[in-house]
Each structure stands twice: as C-alpha cells, then as structure tokens.
Amino acid sequence: MIYSYCKRCNLESPGDMCTGCGKRAPVSAQMDQWSIAAHPLTDGRVWRSVLFSLLASAVLLMAVVFGMEAVINGGEAAGVLFRGSLPRMILALVPVGMAAAFLFLLLQGQEVEVFKLDAQGAHLRTWHGPQKWKSWARLQSADPRKNVPQQDGSVVHLSQERHLLWKDVQSVQYRPSKATISIYHTPHVAPLVLRLPPEEYELAKAYVGKYCKGK
User: Per-residue pLDDT tens for 49-96?
Assistant: First the structure.
C-alpha cells in the first residue's frame, strides 16, 4: 500500500495525499509498505534450508572421515570403515538435527516481516514478541534496546533488519506465481526477497521497476 510522509505536518498518511493539510506528497516522499505475518515452523523455505544444510554437513563429514582414513591407513581400511556402522551414525545426525530444528522453530513463534520501498531503496524489518526465548531460539541476543512499544500498549522486538539501496542493485527477478520479487546486489550473495500479498504484487513490481529499469 502506498503511504506518504508530509514534512509540513510531520505525518505519515495512507495514499499520496496528506490527511493533515490535504496536499499531495512529492514522489520522493511516497513509499510502498506492507507486512507479512508468518510462523517459521510452517515455512517450507526454512525447512528446505535446514534439510539441505544437514545433508550437506553429513556428506562433508563422511568425506572428511573416510578421506582421512584412506590417506592414513589406505583404501582398504576406508572400505572396511565404510561398511561398518559409522555411515549410519553420521546420517542419523539428519533426523536428530531436524528434531532440534523443530524445537527451535516452535519456540520462535510468529514473526512479522515489514517491507518498505522508498526513494532510497528496499527495506526489511522483522519483528516478534519481546519474550527472551524467542530471540534465543533465533540464536540472537535478547537486547532490550530493540524492544519497541506500540500505540496499543504492546511491545515488539526488532529481530533483524536489512536495507538495499537502488544504486547497488545488480538484477531483479520477478516471480508473480509465488508473489515474490528477488533483488540481487553486490554486498550479499543471497538476494533480498520481497514476499507480497497477491493483491500487492503489481504495485510493488511497478515501484521496483521504476528504480531498476533494465535490471
């Protein structure tokens, strides 16, 4: 949804008109902002990442162990070791790791991702409840300075934030079927992925395209 900020009234209003003075905000003062509420426990992307990491770690560990055995004691000794119970023990780390991931994701609880596109770039802030265990389950410190009171009296905690300037964007990938826009830039290998409600997709696509023409 488009919001605008009026310097005269120091007020943020929905749409491109200030609700205080009634004047239209300049394009540079307009922003597209939306939020996505989700639970990491039910996020398929998270589980795919966890499974891939565990499998890659198991394969790497087996390669190191059997490789060292072959170098030190020869290929025959490595073969004997491979036919033993060690490979099964290493692969058992995968279900154990999945179970541990389930517990951590369960403790994380619901989070809200707030996306904002403005004249400077794309911004993502992730918020969750102020409970300390929710930060610890995300392997983060429960810094009370990141707790932000809300108008309704509740408190939310800033889990993470990421900012990408338009001038740093190298390429953009649009996925309307998944309602996502992936923005790639120089400092990070992983893109900033804009997750959108389907009804907000075209508006965000037009906003990104305005600053990333030909990318």
Answer: 999 999 999 999 988 988 888 888 887 877 887 888 888 898 999 999
pTM of this structure: 0.80
pLDDT greater at residue 5 or residue 154: 154
User: Which amino acid does the sequence have at 211?
Assistant: Y
The answer to whether residue 125 scores a pLDDT higher than 90 is: yes
CATH topology classification for 2-39+109-211? PH-domain like (2.30.29)
Q: Which residues contact 43 (CB under 8 A, 6 or more apart)?
A: none
Give me the chain's average pLDDT, please. 88
DSSP string, 48-105: HHHHHHHHHHHHHHHHHHHHHHHHHH-HHHHHHHHTSSHHHHHHTHHHHHHHHHHHHH
Q: Which two tokens stand for residue 30?
A: 């307009």
Start-end of CATH 2.30.29 domains in the chain? 2-39+109-211
